[in-house]
């Protein structure tokens, strides 16, 4: 398979994940240990097979990489392959002011040590694409979809939606007999590569360390251990539901809906995770303020909180339910300025949904909260992508 093997030190994981995400979003297929190996994998066999099956070997050199026995072994394997194949195989990235090993001296490399990150990432992506590498032939069940955040809780939804739409187009072109490629874009949660910000990873590692060393914590009590354990559970639950929900939305929502719905859904789950991490710090520790500055400590549990969260003047709570059975029903916040709210207030009875202009209300309010509550209820609550035959009423 035409792809790029990425060799690196685990201590450079933050940078390398950003590099891999950029390559994937540019349509370049990669072999990356986080994506290719699971618990129980035979590491040596996986790495040897990854190098053998790759078209290029991209090595991220740094002071940490120079100290890594795995990186040294991978580099030696790559050099042997380059000699055997008698063609360019190695591509070098220099991350810091490390001294390159003798085997790489004299080779042109991409230098990140003096800045220019975006320019250099684009340079790498262009090089591999110019060499003919493309992920268009990768089976859907092997494709990777990056999930990135800025400002703590804001999904880079345009990149996510573009990647999903490209996969849809690729599948549709490969299966022209299918009526709706979206029905077959059945992504699995493990295919989503979540790229967290440095502060998020730092707060999570501090929470792990605080639990591990809880008995020496100056604020130790049995209740503290329970609280920290519950905080970690809240973080991991939010992370799992995030990827589960995004795969549901990616499967069922077309491009014009996907970007909005995925952004607001992700904001709900990421808000829960960052506040759980932020609140689990020791008193007086203010690390990660940038993660929570746009979020809500207690989520969207009231009119004012919902309005602030969704960026509108006011919100109303509504029920949505099937006309025939009146259950199961969904309760969600919607923008109070939506004209249907005025009609509901005037008539004081539920209204049929057919024919109503949902527009941004469906994408921004209903779908994100519907998917969140579906996952929160263990898959038992209402999950309907077409609301024909449903009614809406004030809660």
Question: Which residues form runs of ≥5 with pLDDT under 50?
Answer: none
Helix content: 40-55%
Outline: globular
Note the run of SSEs as H and E. EHEHHEHHEEHEEHEHHHHHEEHEHE
The tally of beta strands, per DSSP, is 12
Mean pLDDT: 88
Termini, distance in Å? 55 Å
Q: If helices are DSSP runs of H or I spanning 4 or more residues, what is the number of helices?
A: 14
Largest sheet: 5 strands, parallel
Characteristic key phrases:
single chain, 395 residues, alpha/beta, Rossmann fold, 3 domains, 5-stranded parallel β-sheet, 4-stranded antiparallel β-sheet, 14 helices, 48% helix
Structure in words:
- The chain is α/β, with parallel strands linked by helices and 395 residues long.
- The chain has three domains: 4-136, Rossmann fold; 139-297, no CATH class; 303-394, no CATH class.
- It has helices at residues 13-25, 33-36, 43-52, 63-66, 69-85, 117-130, 157-174, 198-212, 222-252, 255-279, 289-292, 303-310, 339-347, 360-376; strands at residues 4-7, 30-31, 56-61, 90-94, 109-111, 145-150, 154-155, 192-195, 315-322, 330-335, 351-352, 390-394.
- Strands 2-1-3-4-5 form a five-stranded parallel sheet, sandwiched between helices.
- The chain starts with a strand and ends with a strand.
